[in-house]
Amino acid sequence: MTRAHLFTIDFRVISITAAALLLAVGCGLFAAQAQSIQLGNLEATLSRPVFNNTNSGLRFPTALNGPNDNSGDFFLTGLQGRIHKFDNGVELSSTPNGPFLNLTSEVLVNGGTGMLGTAFHPGHSNPTDPGYRKLYTYHSTALNNGPVTFAVPGEGISHYNVLTEWQASAANPNFVDLSTRREVYREAHPLNNEHNGGALDFGADGYLYVTNGAPPGLFESAQSLDNILGKVLRINPLAPAATPGSLDPVSGNGQYRVPTSNPFVSEPSAIDEIYAFGLRNPYRMSVDPVTGLVFAGDVGQVSREEVSVFSGGANLGWPYREGSVEGPIEPDPPIPTFTDPLAEYGR
Question: Which is it for strands 343-345 and 35-36: parallel, antiparallel or unpaired?
Fold first, then answer.
């Protein structure tokens, strides 16, 4: 029988090279040129807090997170559209009642698509917060008649990616109340099923960060601010009515707010939601809760895999750069200023 496992890692010994790298991150000492990741003397002990067979649908995990409430509960998101809730390794929402959330009937799983991200609102556990019991998912779905918030350049739309708000049930917090579903935005994805990004994370600023990739054939779209391909977006995903005192303007579709502090809101041709650009496929991302820096793993094409650390307005270089080296396309002068990755390694 096929089984899925989740392991935690306890690091006991760390190499001098890795320690120096971590020190550089902590002190903000970022070199102009990314340093290649070196193998070191690292020992790890694995423990297994989760063990389930496929009867529960726990397969192909894409996100592991939960609310910041010190409860010890965590949530595991699977590519096929299920979110499972665990307490000390025991699933609280399991068959026959189903998982915490099940969207398998509508999630498109084909190559790079699927249920790609989950994030819990910072106020999820605070009854006085407008984000109480709220969480957000990012999933791919087949083409239908849903309203599209973000169009894309060119032709040949493959599918939609949808950012959705939900609430845990007031009667039973081990399950999502499906009646609370609210679509925040829907984006068209072009050409094929690759490079969807889909990572979600809230920063200490209370805003939601969302990654999106630039698919093959539209690489240069990552350098253009008039589309969301190859970008990190930053929004306040709550319904505007929930934050009446906010100075952030309401989005074009009326479903969320756009931070006035986003770096490109003053540029007439730019999409205001863009926070950073020049990425290929930022499949995983997190926001440092202390510094506010974004850490993103960007999938390479030919020669580099990279980890980048950046703030608002950063140009990560794709497709003019792959990691810290030349990319597949040469930019026209003047050459933009790029943010090189913190670390990179060969493919």
Answer: parallel
